[in-house]
Design a protein that fits this description.
The complex is a heterotrimer.
Chain A: H1 3-8, H2 33-38, H3 49-63, H4 65-73, H5 85-90, H6 97-112, H7 114-118, H8 120-123, H9 130-139, H10 148-152, H11 159-172, H12 178-189, H13 198-216, E1 231-234, H14 238-241, H15 245-259, E2 263-265, H16 282-298, E3 303-306, H17 310-324, H18 333-341, E4 350-351, H19 352-361, E5 377-379, H20 383-388, H21 397-409, H22 440-446, H23 448-461, E6 465-468, H24 471-480, E7 491-493, H25 494-501
Parallel strand pairs in A: 1-2, 1-3, 3-4, 5-6, 6-7
Helix pairs in contact in A: 3-4, 3-11, 6-11, 15-25, 16-17, 19-21, 21-25
Chain B: H1 3-32, H2 48-61, H3 63-68, H4 70-94, H5 101-104, H6 113-129, H7 131-136, H8 139-160, H9 167-179, H10 189-204, H11 212-218, H12 220-223, H13 236-244, E1 247-248, E2 253-254
Antiparallel strand pairs in B: 1-2
Helix pairs in contact in B: 1-10, 4-6, 6-8, 8-10
Chain C: E1 2-4, E2 7-9, H1 23-32, H2 39-55, H3 61-72, H4 79-85, H5 92-97
Antiparallel strand pairs in C: 1-2
Helix pairs in contact in C: 2-3
The chains are: A mainly alpha, B mainly alpha, C mainly alpha.
The complex binds iron/sulfur cluster (2 copies).
One iron/sulfur cluster binds next to helix 6 of chain A.
Chain lengths: ~500, ~260, ~110
Amino acid sequence: MSINSIEKFPTYLAIPPLKKDSMAGNGPFKASIEIQKDLGFPGEKVDNWQQVAINKIAETKSKYRSVQVFLDSCMKCGVCTDKCHYYLGTADPKNMPVARQDLFRSVYRRHFTFAGKYFPKLVGAKDFDEDMLDDWYNYFHQCSQCRRCAVFCPIGIDTAEISMAAREIMNAIGVGQKYPNQILGKINKIGNNLGMPEPALRDTLADLEEEIEEETGASVKLPLDIKNSEVLMVTPSADFFAEPHIDGLIGYAKVFHQSGVSWTLSSYASEAANFGMFIGNYDVMRQGALRIRKAALDLNVKRVVVGECGHAWRVAYSFWNTLTGLGSGGSDEYSLKLQNQLDSNYPQPQHMIEFTYDLIQRDKLSFDKSKNDHRVVTFHDSCNVARGSNMGDIENGQFILPREVIKAACNNFSDMHKSTIKSATFCCGGGGGLLTDDLIDLRIKGAKPRMHALKRSEQDNGVNTLAAICAICKSQFSKVLPNYDFDPYMIVSVHQLVSDAIILTKDSET
Amino acid sequence: MSLISIFFTLFFYFSVLIFITGLSYKVVQYWNTPAPLKIPIAPAPLTKSGVFLRLAKEVFLFATLFKSSKWTWLFGWSFHLALVLLFFRHLVYFWPGEIPLILLKTEPLKYAAYPLIFGLIGLLGRRIFVDRVRYISAPSDYLMLLLIILIGASGMLMTFANNHPNMLLVKNFAEGLITFQWSELPKEAIFLAHIFPVFFLIAIFPISKLLHGPGIFFAPTLNQVDDARKKRHISNWAMQKEKNTKIDLDHNQDKGS
Amino acid sequence: MAEILGMEVDEEGYLLKVSDWSIEIANVMSEEDGIELSTEHWEVINFLQSYYKEYEFAPAVRVLTKAIAKKLGNDKGNSRYLYSLFPYGPAKQGCRFAGLPKPTGCV
Ligand code: SF4
Ligand code: SF4
């Protein structure tokens, strides 16, 4: 794709006219029988799937107020229609948030409401038939659960809640998506999404220590399974494996090194990501979170810090306390057991950005900012951090802290257009369990609004570096950037910027 | 009483009955359905008073709608505001016995009919002419707008085009509905066209998208305090599960209950 | 189930069994991707396989680049170079040619 063809695109603010069925299809690969059974779902689509699905809808809406209220309350005002990056990128009307919800809502109306039972045509109620199920599978896997639509809905309707519920219902009838479900199997067995066993992890970390020492002369450690450490660091396993993630991991290690706070990774809980959220399954999500609880107890740490991973931070910040009692304020025996062990002087869990920011505030870190002078940096707010969490316990802290950390390490920072950042940030296009090669076409198209904002920043402000704090965003951008005529290496971890500029104390100096 | 008066009288009670039972049912249902996870949407308030402010801004100013679409906000907000004003304007008819002074001074509120119609026509136009909104609209979405336009238009024709029905009859009929001392209603078609859709909308309120009224107060995205790290928020069903099953941390799973 | 030279592969073209791998399979796979396997490619594939034998897991990209730097020189020990060899990613495409399972996760 050449520069010219990009300029011919409408800007990210322009709304495309509908192109019906432009993204019709079979959806991503389905999970195999073994994968489904591992998670306790039926292996294959059950025979009486319609009945099972209807029952599951009834159960879900009785357990989740969000689902019940959102199904009832949409007034079809349509202001969310142009807020979804997948709609903006594909023009398929079923990717408009309200239309996506309507796939669910029409079935709900048909089977659960008076109007839908007796006047289906009038209120757009539809039977849950094979065609509808196909649409569910296809279009609920074209939603990254980024919640941008929810920010703009006057009633607060969050399509992500609906798409999580829909995936939960599909799993209950034996129709699951391969990518997240296979990964969830691995995390339950091995402890991380990659399926990276402990020896490989240990070896990789040792390799990194060697590399850092060679480069900097400082003996920065990446400890694994060290009991009684102050901090348990839980980070997405992509940080151990992929580029550019791994430079972020090196950044965390350097910050810990400078802070003097003892820390450890855990081979048992070597994953912060929790795809249980993407498939809307409370128990599976809890299972993943329990591994971290166990690691924290076993390693007898005082604090839990979470690395750069968007949805993981939402799960950690918003859900861990609920799921596992990892947080504070619990009064039940179960959560107290952990909460008594953790140091209540710090927020539990804490984000790595909060940890670093705090050190910067207290003047504990020094930087040679000129090391980043070849960069003009912009920051991509990852959806789940931006719209589903907080940092620093100050209002809008999740927008402020990462930017402050970047500015502490870089001289040149410039935000993208304000309609595309902070709570209005555009998804990278690969979140919510869609970061899989079989959805690459969708991923490229869904990245369009973000890419256009970036293009404008490049043209107006010379931005050449895109920093993020999410493993999915980083992988997604590395992949799609070239499609929009960018250098795939312009995407970096925020802690890579920290890593490049931080001044390390050598052992001889201490 | 004439048949038509009996019909409308019964229709009124029927609608109010559905309204009250249906709405209570819905509110109780929302109330009783747990919100198992903290899902406030950014910009999320960190305190209770923040939540209060947020909801107030949404309910009175339609703050999010303003952020999302200025035109829709203009149409939607003027329509809803006019609706409230016109509601007060109509109280005088229903007030039993001596009428408080304030209600006698509501006469100028009748001009709210203009922004009402303006907003409704705008919303209808948007539904018809914006392809995205047309796509998501079901027949009932048009019908509802048309019904309210009918209410507004018939009201305006009576008020501003000198088609007043016998106001004494109106007053007696309306007051009679409240005091159970039923009386004849004016039989002008325009009056009937005014009240029929009103009663109808009251009836369908709890079984239609008009539920966005109570819904907004129950949306966890808007009404939750963003303090998940500080307070343990757990639903009854999850707590029950936790109690029934002792967590087996060695195998890291719930022991069978 | 699809097959390559009689050996079963999954829907994404990865061998189901590591032991089914053969040089011919790597050649067929790379041909389908329009790549001619050079000595450099083979260095990568061989390293992936020997690492996998030891750890039952593919090496992290950083580990791979360092190993390649040792073998082929520092100018080639970086991910840009590896991507030029394997445009779909040294980890994903490399593992496929090497008969190893696809690395999953946020990568
Ligand atoms: S903005 Fe909210 S209420 Fe309006 S159509 Fe979208 S989901 Fe429905
Ligand atoms: S949650 Fe995000 S991806 Fe899903 S419909 Fe809303 S805007 Fe689109």
